[in-house]
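In keeping with the milestone schedule agreed at the kick-off meeting, the structural modelling team has produced records for the first pair of proteins. Each record is given below as a sequence line and a structure-token line. The laboratory manager (R.T.) confirmed that both were archived under the project's standard naming scheme.
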Amino acid sequence: MYISDEKIKLPEDCDTVVWKYLDLSKFVDLLLYRKLFMSRSDKFEDQYEGTFSEPTFEEIRKLSADNPDFLDFYKTRRKNIVVSSWHLNEYESFAMWQIFTQKNEGLAIQSTLGRLQKALEVERVYEQHIGAVNYIDYKKEYIPFENSFFPFLFKRKSFVYEREIRIITDVTSHQLIIDNGLKIDVDIQSMIEKIYIHPKSENWYKNLVIELVKRLGFDFAIEKSDLESDILI
């Protein structure tokens, strides 16, 4: 299910390219168990995750003056929202390689919005939602709260470089106690269109990734990074 609103502009083209940058251990975990890890929203580095901008908070505070449970609902809900983050970009991102991989090792999964939606169809327990993050000034701009997912689809302008698409799940009704996150079923073959190996990785690492993918029974296209140059000066 796509989340759409006049302030949340998810691309309409299902062939829109999205990326996920991750280290080898997380990639192997994904292929081995065929499950996508989703992080608990209040575990992200950004402490504003799932909160409101100042104008919105003031409105909610007034509404909750005679009903404190109204505000408590939003505070506690962060523990029950899990998120898988993807990067919207037609091309590879040097910044994403730098942020999400280390020691010149790691991979990037290339997918599309359509592929993500199809890949999530195998999950029967948890309902999935896909939305684009909107980047705003939290001191001045308003975050609507008629949709309970909206606090998780807005971030401060400082993070605009992320160009984030999110898969979001609310597990409140399942009465779970989640530690760091939750794994959901996905169709790996549908989700992954191509794999790109870190542009600065050595040949032994590239060969390791190719062999791992083969031994785990997948036949994804594995591409050389477009940021890896053959030009010698």
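The second protein of the pair:
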Amino acid sequence: MKKLPKSAVVLSTSLLLSLGFNAGADSKPVHQDLLDKHKPEKISEHVYVIQGPTGYPNKENQGFMNNPGFIVTDKEVAVIDPGSSAAIGRAVLAHIRKVTDKPITQVFTTHVHGDHWLGNQAFKEENPDVKFFAHPTMIEEATNGAAAEWISTMDTMTEKATAGTEAIIPTEVLVNAQEIKVGDLTLKAHIIEGKVHSATDVMYEVVGEKVLFTGDNINNKRIVRMDDGSFVGSIKAAEHALTLDVDKVVPGHGPTGSKNTLTYYRDYLSKVYSSVKEMRNEMEAHEMKPKIAEKLADYKDWQGLDEELGKHISLSVLEAEQEDF
């Protein structure tokens, strides 16, 4: 029997993966719903985004809740935040392979929270030489236990739907304003000193494409946890982003938007924090909530507002107290 050329075998494997095919018990799982219902959107000449759902990780969504992105250049492909599991990462990879067969050489992480980067595994499987970039503190925290904690958290929240995921921790350390070449394009890393959404955040500007990936520094139609972050730092990050020459903003969660997305999320953070500073000497945190909620009528339909607002007020009280010292 005549043997198929090696390239044909690779193409066939890639095609099967792109179709979500699982051949036997030993095959690697692929997130089928992501393949079927969440198609990449081309938001500029070279940039694509797969918009995820905005709910919390659960058994039904199998942990998929962020906005993976990829950039197709003349010679290679870069990926930003490939999601929270190996199966999600493989589905993102399958979508990329429907667009291009160029090598995926670089993967960028916006911050340490595992719903954004545990999909790294799929890209290491395809290309052992791929480079993974992140904030130095992200690498440190992930290495010192955060990676294992996030794998456990995702397994618990999804009732083992993310089982089998291995943490591929980035090794390439970024600094503020660093420019990284990806083929004929450039990514610029924007790092705000101190805490923002966490102490590990990087925003990525696709120079020339006027696209900014913000990670969870900015969100749209989604209120996120701020347990690891700073309201003052997050407002500062939004103000910095507003100075950039961008017109498409890819938030950590929620739909891609215009530059107004930056203003809208900054205003949410500002209203919460300034209100707390005004009220904290007159009432307790739980008494503030209904009054602050009245000021946030524009955000009443945002996913997570009911769950997070009380915690945001309490965290703002603590941060305001720390500002006094």
